[in-house]
Amino acid sequence: MPDNLIYIMAQKPSIPKGTRDFSPEEMVKRNYIFDTIRAVFQHYSYQNIETPAMENLSTLMGKYGEEGDRLLFKIVNSGDYLKKISKKDIDAGNINKVTAAISEKGLRYDLTVPFARYVVQHRNSIVFPFKRYQIQPVWRADRPQKGRYREFYQCDVDVIGSGSLLNEVELIRMIDDIFKQLKIDVVIKLNNRKILTGIAEVINAPEKITDITTTIDKIDKIGVEKVYEELRQRGLSEETITMLEPIINLGGDNQKRLNCLKELIGITSAGSQGVDELQEIIDLIKILDISADVEIDQALARGLNYYTGTIIEVLAKDVNIGSLCGGGRYDDLTGIFGLPDVSGVGVSFGADRIYDVLNELNIFPDHQKAVTQVMLVNFGKKESAFALQLLEILQNSGISAELFPDAAKMKKQMQYANKKAVQYVLLPGEEEMKTGLYSLKNMQTGEQVKKVLSELISLING
Asked: What is the pairing mode between strands 401-403 and 374-376?
């Protein structure tokens, strides 16, 4: 055998950086999150769709800006992918042309652009307003670091084909429901793109809107003084920064902030409309039973170039980990694919960050730790055949159960049950076969009872 082949065979297997394996125990926790989110989406009558892992690069490129294009995972064409490459482009280092020649597809960067493509492609069969949800992985060729992965899941929910602010209110209710069920205390922050536009107009710097909002969005991370310093570096004059100060430093409750914003930027058309839209949302929320804190944050600017109206961001109160959920209103998402003026609004839940919060707070439900509720001990060939019938009855009663496959020593079988965090162990031995009374051991408390099967089923199901 060649030496190089021996080396290849001996290499320790690995996975790409920025990706992860998930153990059965971790998947139980992840599925708890996905199931909770999915159940709420369905409760509010949103319909599930899925889109391919890969899209044509013509669909993806140019939709996320220069950085997004760089972070897209491109897929090399099958067959002789080098045949279209020009040696001149290679020698000139023309990466864009070379990439276009060897790759026509890429892994999806998010679920939003594929959703826009889906809506346009299937517009004749969609009933508008279209309420959709999607829970699938996305990929980004980013530098892996804590909390940032190259493969991760997004849980998106959108309603498209309606400009009504009732949709924003419904999304806030859904956010509240999901985090209430997950037992995570959150604050839901709101702003409006039109308010940000109004701010830029009132200080006579509309051309600097991206610089202004991108910078003031960092207040919570770097503080006010460093925000002012960065604004100077971005070319804003001291006079302009002075005009910004009362807007940046707005305090008080939501109504006070809205009143101040009305005074400060209400003279602009965009600013006035943005304040009115936020006022309507806040007024509607007041008549509902919303548990989470809802706060207006005039500095919130996530995805500035993408959103056209309401902006939403959700933060955990007890863990400093960044946004758990975010999104907003977009007035022309489908326009990039030739279907203009179709307004929509949506948010995306970050399952990975939610997982980290639940882990850090140690608030995953106890019952989620065990995949198997009951394990049946295998006492031998005759007993295991009998136990197989019991297993069928337990499983048909909605109990997750398994029969240890080998007639191994009791110690080995109990160790297996312990390592898998099995809740109960059932011991169907020869005596139990005769009497119909079965011993059931609670693996957490050590308590053991002896009852007929129907009573044990009631006990296990609680």
From this structure: parallel
Q: Could you please report the per-residue DSSP string of 313-366?
A: EEEESS----EEEEEEEES-GGGGGT--S--EEEEEEEHHHHHHHHHHHT-S-G
Beta bridge partners of 54: 107
Q: Which DSSP symbol is given to 125?
A: T
Q: What is the pLDDT of residues 355-405, one digit of tens each?
A: 999 999 999 987 655 678 999 999 999 999 999 999 999 999 999 999 999
Q: Who contacts 89 (Cβ-Cβ below 8 Å, separation ≥6)?
A: 97, 98, 101
Extract the tokens encoding 234.
């971005």
pTM, full prediction: 0.85
Nearest to 259 by CA among 219, 293, 209, 298: 298
Burial-class residue 361 by CB neighbours within 10 Å (0-12, 13-18, 19+): middle
Query: What is the CATH number that goes with domain 370-461?
Result: 3.40.50.800
Identity of the amino acid at 138 = V
- Side chain identity, residue 270: A
Torsion of CA 317, 318, 321, 323, to 10 degrees: -20
Q: Which residue has the tokens 């604050």?
A: 187
Q: Where are the domains of the chain?
A: 370-461
CA-nearest of 264, 332, 344, 335 to 298 is 264
Beta strand pairing call for 151-160 and 310-316: unpaired
